[in-house]
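Support reply, case 0932

Customer input (verbatim):
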Amino acid sequence: MRTLEDALILARLRIETTFLWMEDSSCRPDFIDQELVNSKLDSFRGTYVSIYCPLGVSGHIDHLAVRSAGVNLWLKSGKRSRICFYEDLPYAARMKDVDVEVETRVRELTGTCGRLVVLYRPMNSDGVRRKLFFGSRYLTQNNHSNLLEMHAKQMGQRCGEDYAERYVSSS
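Our regenerated output:
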């Protein structure tokens, strides 16, 4: 169901995607077969400019598996592209000490990925409105609009803007 939601929302945003069609942890009896994921991703080697993965601040098993697969793909490609890690929302917005968690995950990844930098992408009120609108289209999730807006404001304060998103990138 989540993949279908992603496909609909990303198509509406005119973002070209490819899905691996892996079951969500809530629907499968055991762990993700990481070798199967890696073999599916091998066909994409060299066909992308950037790789975007969840940072894994929530510790969600699916997010960590996707992050691991993305890092493996990036390493196999010789680190020719940029790898970025986004905050897992709404999980990150719910965390009391999310900054500590982000720092911990960045340190974790530095051993594999080398130097990583934490960046803030400013957003105007229209960008936040669109993000909240599309986020609320996920029918399998509760509506977290208020929480996400508050988090975007907190991130905006970090870079002197009204709103922002935080992400981590290879240099």
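We compared this against your earlier run and they match. Two observations from our side: The helical segments are 2-12, 34-42, 61-76, 91-94, 98-113, 125-135, 145-158. The mean pLDDT is 89. Please reopen the case if you see a mismatch on your end.
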